[in-house]
Amino acid sequence: MSISKNYLVMGAVYLLVGVLLGMYMGGSEDHSLAPVHAHINLLGFTLMTIFGLAYRVMPQMAESPLAKAQFWLHQIGALVLLVGLYLLMSGHAVPGLPAPILPVAEAAVFLSILCWLVNLVRRA
After folding, report:
1. What CA–CA distances, in Å, run from 44 to 37, 63, 95, 97?
2. Dist CA 92 CA 33 (whole Å)
3. I need a labelling partner for 33 at 20 to 30 A (CA). Which of 18, 66, 87, 112 fits?
4. Do residues 112 and 77 make contact, with C-beta atoms less than 8 angstroms apart?
5. Count of domains for the chain
6. pLDDT tens by residue, 16-64
């Protein structure tokens, strides 16, 4: 699969998860997970869809090793960050976790965006 398609598929998966969480919150009238819902939609659906469309429009960027690094950094960082945020916000966190892991996940997302910027400047 191409990097563009990978991003678009993952964006659609996160959209589905975000919508399901939103439906749960609406049905239960418990909106305590609203920050998780917002982050799923932003880091998951919105960013991944934008990246996927951009790689489709600028295929020369997809040829860079930075594109693959960006994809995996973003996937791992976003997933760990979103699961950690869910655990914290829902009260299901194991004592001592995931707080120490969250900065690492945030750094992975940051590095993925840095890869995106460098790739964009070099190849777009």
Report:
1. 10, 23, 27, 22
2. 12
3. 112
4. yes
5. 1
6. 999 999 999 999 999 999 999 999 999 999 999 999 999 999 999 999 9
